[in-house]
Amino acid sequence: MLHHFQGKDFLKISDFTPEEITYFIDTAADLKRKRAMGEVYQPLAGKTVAMIFEKASTRTRISFQAGAAQLGGHSLYRHPAEMQLSRGEPIRATARNRYRD
Predict the structure, then answer these.
(1) With contact defined as beta carbons under 8 Å apart, do 56 and 82 qualify?
(2) What is d(CA 85, CA 91) in angstroms, rounded to the nearest whole number?
(3) Rg of the Cα trace of the chain?
(4) Closest CA to 70 of 30, 33, 31
């Protein structure tokens, strides 16, 4: 089954069907296998992953940064206080308007 997630935010697990969650897990296992085999797979080459965490999360942030780099991309982290989020702008609006490729 082919899934199309473009334009869909991953904010909470309940936003996805069991089939979609299974697809995520299978995809993660495939990516881990490719990395273990030394296969170069860089679907994020030339892309930037913008990360915004409402709460401090060093391990999660570093994991996302490492994942973006392993997939060929770059990462950008901004604390909400550094952006319009501190003035009430929704995260969705911030991401949509500032970090599209």
Answers:
(1) no
(2) 7
(3) 15
(4) 31
